[in-house]
Amino acid sequence: MKLEEIRHKFLSFFEEKGHTIVPSAPMVIKNDPTLMFTNAGMVPFKEFFLGNAIAKDKRVTDTQKCLRVSGKHNDLDEVGVDTYHHTMFEMLGNWSFGDYFKKESIAWAWELLTEVYGIDKNDLYVTIFEGDEKDGVPRDTESYDFWKKWIPEDRIIEANKDDNFWEMGEMGPCGPCSEIHIDIRSDEEKKNVDGKTLVNQDHPQVVEVWNLVFIQFNRKADGSLEKLPETHIDTGMGLERLAMALQGKQSNYDIDLFQTLIAQIVKQSGFEYGKTESTDIALRVIADHVRAIAFSISDGQLPSNTGAGYVIRRILRRAVRYGYQTLKMNEPFLAPLSKVLIAEMGEAFPELVDNKTLIENVIREEEMSFFKTLEQGIKRIEIIIENQKEEGIKEIPGAQVFELYDTFGFPFDLTALMAREAGMTLDQAGFDKALQAQKDRSRSATSLKTDDWTELLVDEKEEFIGYDHLEADVKITRYRKVVQNKKSFYQLVFNLTPFYPEGGGQVGDKGYIEFDGEKVSIFDTKKENNLIVHLVKDLPKNPNASFKAVVNTEKRTLSAANHSATHLLHHALRTVLGDHVVQKGSLVNPEYLRFDFAHFSKVSDEELIQIEQIVNDLIRQNTPLNELRNTPIKEAQELGAMMLFGEKYGDTVRVIQFGDSIELCGGTHVPGTGNIGWFKIISEGSVASGIRRIEAISNHTAEKYINNKLEQLSNVNALFKNTKNVVQSVEEILESNNRMQKQLEQIEKDRAKNIKGDLKNNIVEKDGMNFLEAIVPLDGGAIKDVLFQLKGEVANLFAVIGGEKDGKCTLSIIIDEEIVKSKDLHAGNMIRSAAKHIQGGGGGQPFFATAGGKKPEGLKDAISEVKEMV
Ligand code: ATP
Ligand code: MG
User: Fold this and answer.
1) Residues of the chain with pLDDT > 70: what percent?
2) 210 lines ligand 1 (CB under 6 A)
3) Residue 316 to residue 309: CA distance in whole angstroms
């Protein structure tokens, strides 16, 4: 059974059981402070479990793209090393939101696996929760009894809290779970060792395929559990593991998709699969990682230096490193591999096909730059090894290994390999310590602690009225304290709110709430699990009061102008550059707007002028806003609204139309384009391969910007006595400056020449040396030139020269190599001591050294000391 068919059978099985099939949510999460990537099928449904929203469909089924490379679920180190963990994988799931519970969930799982997929019942084992005294949760006898109907009791295994109690995070919905494990070993092996003893023992052929989670508790901030008013079902089955079982394979990497990918890398590297463990791991890592990277990019998350982008970069680098180190590839191999991946998966995931060129280019650029980093790192290791050898030490300090790892992205085991080859060892303990210190630093930097909600008022849904109102009478329905990076604040939820929560690139509203003369400032508004939370530093004295809530109108109006301008800019870009231009990110705040888009070359100045003109023409036409709320998504598509990949859309959407610009958008906008006032692009540049960024301003800000520029110009004009042609005047002055600079250099040269003549005349014979001392008005560079010339002209030279120029002073010593040897002198050591007199420091080689100082009066003493030393 091919992957496609397995996926299809799952979804249609649950559809027949009354479930609605929903599409996978994006893998990259935007606007959630607690999570960067979807790491389980339940993530898109969090709001239903938390009770923040009510599910429209009580039974849902889907396949969800998941990524487990950071945070609570991080499988990165296992991936490729074992044969059944991936970074990115598909999780098939069926969901009940306050509808059916354990009985149906267990019965259907059994029916699907054994009857639809035809898995041999003798290969299956199940686990149930054994209970936990501390949490006060009893053994899950209910599940045991339901399972008993289908499977012999000796195949039901009890497992502890680590394995069979599922939690979303430190706090929140949780409950016992029941897992289904499959034994895919050969008959021979099954005869020899009882499969039951291998469940939950990390055996690669006795693995968990499906987890049925029974959500019935909420974990509170103090660690205690409370019963939820409604119970839910959350199940997750790894598609790749299921396919491995159904295709009769022994490893996830033997299923159709990965075999195609591995075949391509084998072709490129010349290493065969299935010969040696170390090369097999490398082949699996690469096959796995290319998929995770390609999907992240099409979801809108490019590799970068921070946050989610950095996680993606690390995955990419892990793959490149295995290719480089183990498979000896030193040219981009992931970029060509991404084409094979897209050919394989593009049909099921059209976003890959749409972003094909972007994916390939971004990957190639990242690969090239990492190859360079690897080279630099290797040079650096060579230097370190050389230095250690000179000092006679056979170990590389942990701090330096960590520096290589952290700054150059240089992996520990590669450093270890090179050290071994040079007969050296690494200080592993020191490295571990430095790594741990860094982890602790970043953990405390992102620490987040939330208290439980204090409920004041029961309210079904917090209504957003901010499209139509900037003020309202509100009540606080609940609040809680949050401590983030040591700063504490409160989150307030209202029964209704005019405050726009950060989203779609637009910043959250600011403003205040007021009661009885007390004003509490709202410094930001965000959305968390579908709740609009208003951030305040301190709680109002009486949280139960009825407040007047007021949005900062000026900031909101300017944000709206920039947001509408962003839409017009998007439209103008597509008109001027072509339809391949797609939005890749944006930021809209009261000050300016930033717009990232896919395009493969620099936008020329002429194009920028044209784009700006189109936007300003649209502004002058004062096209009114046509806003369609709650439009079915189909209708919006028919209107020609642009949909963006990586965005999560509901069944109904909001359409924002200004003439030909039609977008799906939840942001706030001006009533007519005229309100944007004026639009001005201030920069254009590249953010990543194939992604350009435009920054622009509108309204007052654009006006101020232009006025500033004009003022600068008129100031310059005034400096030139109001010349008729200011550009020509500036050019003239630059030219004359250049001329004078050249003359000055010539004068300096001549002077140095004269000084050199004088110096030569002052050389005296002393102890078999040609000795020279002097103080001259030249800088260190000029003195150096003169001294090296003299050394070429005069044999057995010993010269000590002070230099004094522009308030700074220098001391230089040059000694003929013969004298260095015969008299055992060292200019560097001499100067280090003599420099004290000029309050400076310096050093150098035995035959030449210089020092700089702050006390020219000390030059004479310094020279005397040098003389004494000789
Ligand atoms: P394991 O103990 O094998 O790591 P898990 O307990 O972390 O699994 P769950 O969080 O219960 O797994 O996820 C549900 C299902 O998703 C698993 O039964 C498995 O089939 C699949 N799965 C989990 N992690 C991965 C992964 N890294 N790669 C592929 N499939 C996975
Ligand atoms: Mg796991």
Assistant:
1) 99
2) yes
3) 11
